[in-house]
Design goal:
Layout: E1 4-8, H1 14-24, H2 29-32, H3 35-43, E2 51-58, E3 66-71, H4 74-99, H5 101-106, H6 111-121, E4 145-151, H7 160-174, E5 179-184, H8 189-197, E6 201-206, E7 209-215
Antiparallel strand pairs: 1-2, 2-3, 3-4, 5-7, 6-7
Bound molecules: coenzyme A.
Residues 24-25, 149-151, 156-157, 161-162, 184, 188-191, 193-194, 197 line the site of coenzyme A.
Length: 216
């Protein structure tokens, strides 16, 4: 594990991180939107002072082996992502809806994001900044969110994921955040086991998923 250094993600990591995402989340909605979408998605985490992103890089120069991203203002993060990329995303998502049945099936669960995308470009079509992007979770979630973590399959079970989250938590603590939350799909039992064993507490669970929080 000492062969890895955990460092802030920069735009130069984004291509590798998008490929890592594709390997780690093969069946997920964002993966089905393709590499162009994923690159823009991760690039956005390099732009905001309220976002945090770390990568685990092998000192021998192998590709990025792990990534963790989060935001203290997910609303602003996604508004900015959609506003900046609307001309690219609108036709891209429209095309994927036509050609990809996974996107067609899942797009309706993303209505909050579609509304946020519309709000980001239509003046006057705005909701209070505190409104959540998902209607499924509990009310009063802590604002600092861990939005994604992934470790390459060959490094799972090695302790790298725990190192990544420890560094992420240290970063948030140093930035003054008292608490961090996340959500996970119910079928992702490995991730749920990982969060439980690394000190996260369940705050809410339903058939839509589990919500965890942790004091920093
Ligand atoms: C989530 C992730 C970062 C965790 O890293 P990891 O290296 O796999 O985590 P660890 O192996 O340290 O911990 C997972 C635990 O779940 C256990 N586990 C493995 N498969 C399991 C399963 N199917 N059901 C329940 N527990 C499982 C492991 O044995 C381990 O527990 P142990 O250390 O007590 O043996 C990694 O699995 C990953 O990248 N997954 C794909 C992306 C993802 O789902 N991200 C999370 C989105 S919320």
């Amino acid at each position: 594990m000492n062969d890895f250094e955990i460092i802030p993600m920069t735009p130069s990591h984004v291509d590798e991180v998008a490929r890592l995402h594709q390997r780690c989340f093969p069946d997920y909605f964002l993966t089905h939107l393709g590499q162009t979408f994923l690159r823009r998605y991760y690039l956005e985490f390099c732009r905001h002072s309220t976002d945090y992103a770390l990568v685990a890089c092998c000192k021998t120069g192998d590709p990025v082996a792990g990534v963790v991203v989060g935001s203290a203002d997910a609303q602003a993060h996604f508004r900015s992502l959609y506003r900046r990329n609307m001309l690219l995303f609108a036709p891209l998502v429209g095309w994927r809806v036509i050609v990809d049945s996974t996107i067609r099936r899942a797009i309706w669960q993303r209505m909050a994001h579609l509304r946020a995308a519309a709000r980001s470009v239509i003046p006057g079509f705005r909701k209070p900044a505190s409104a959540p992007l998902s209607d499924k979770g509990p009310k009063n979630q802590c604002p600092m969110r861990l939005l994604g973590i992934a470790v390459a399959p060959e490094y799972r079970g090695s302790g790298l994921a725990a190192r990544l989250t420890e560094c992420f938590e240290t970063l948030l603590r140093q930035a003054g955040h008292p608490r961090v939350g996340l959500s996970v799909l119910p079928e992702n039992q490995r991730a749920i086991a990982f969060y439980r064993k690394t000190g996260w507490q369940v705050t809410h669970a339903s058939e839509a998923g589990s919500w965890f929080e942790k004091d920093l």
